[in-house]
Amino acid sequence: MFKNQNVLVTGGAGMIGRELVQLLLDEGANVHVADLKHPEDMLDKVTFHHVDLRDFYDCVKICENMDYVFNLVGIKCSPRVCIEEPANIMGPMMQFNTNMLEAAMKQNVKWYLYTSTVGVYEPAEVLKEDDVWDTQPSKNDWFGGWAKRMGELQCQAYQRQYGEGRCSIVRPANVYGSYDNFDLDSAMVVPSLIRKAFSNGVLDVWGDGSSIRDFIHARDVARGMLFAVKNKITEPINLGSGEEITIKRIAEAVASEANVEIVWDTTKPKGDPRRVFDMSRAKSYGFEPQISIEDGISETIEWYLNNKELADIGKDVFKNLNEFKKQ
Question: Which of 20, 107, 115, 216 is exposed most, by the fewest CB atoms within 10 A?
Answer without folding.
Answer: 107
